[in-house]
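To whoever picks this up:

The nightly regression suite flagged DsbE family thiol:disulfide interchange protein as changed. Nothing in the input moved, so I suspect the structure step. Input below, exactly as stored in the fixture:
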Amino acid sequence: MIESQPPVQRPRWALLVAMLPAAIFAALAGAFLWGLFNSDDSLPSTMIGREIPAFELPPIEGRSNGLSSADLRGEVSIVNVWASWCVPCRVEMPLLVELAASGTVPIHGINFKDKPAAALGFLEELGDPYTRIGADRTGRASLEWGVYGLPETFVIDAGGRIAYKHVGPFSRRSLEEDILPVVRKLQAGVAP
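Regenerated output under the current build:
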């Protein structure tokens, strides 16, 4: 007859060590999901409240108006940094075209490191909401604005200071709840 041996009992800490990788994974996955669904598109920027950087950009080849810091003084305006190769820029373009058609606020563009033919094709395909567009062929002007991803949208006050910055494509909700209230306050002469 074979004698059965009593089951080997492992120390309790060994079970905890074995479960540690799964617990770490679950915590990281939870943090990622929380961040994904609880983020807002407005990121703090050191540029808020500061004067816009001095710049002068030529027009995209085939257009007549470039963009400079002097063009952004005297009225509240929006500056949108975009490129034809930027997929999220395509997402927000219909809202920019709609906003431009409403006449609420002038919209200017900074075209980031783009080929002129591609930029013009993008505008022909999706619409052109911009009063002026500066071609930032090297990316230097965008860097001075603090741009680190496309698209980025800035609200500029009449004195040439950055009042608001939106990173990424904006939705109708963020346009109506975040961007346009800042524009309206500035147009009314009230600080946002």
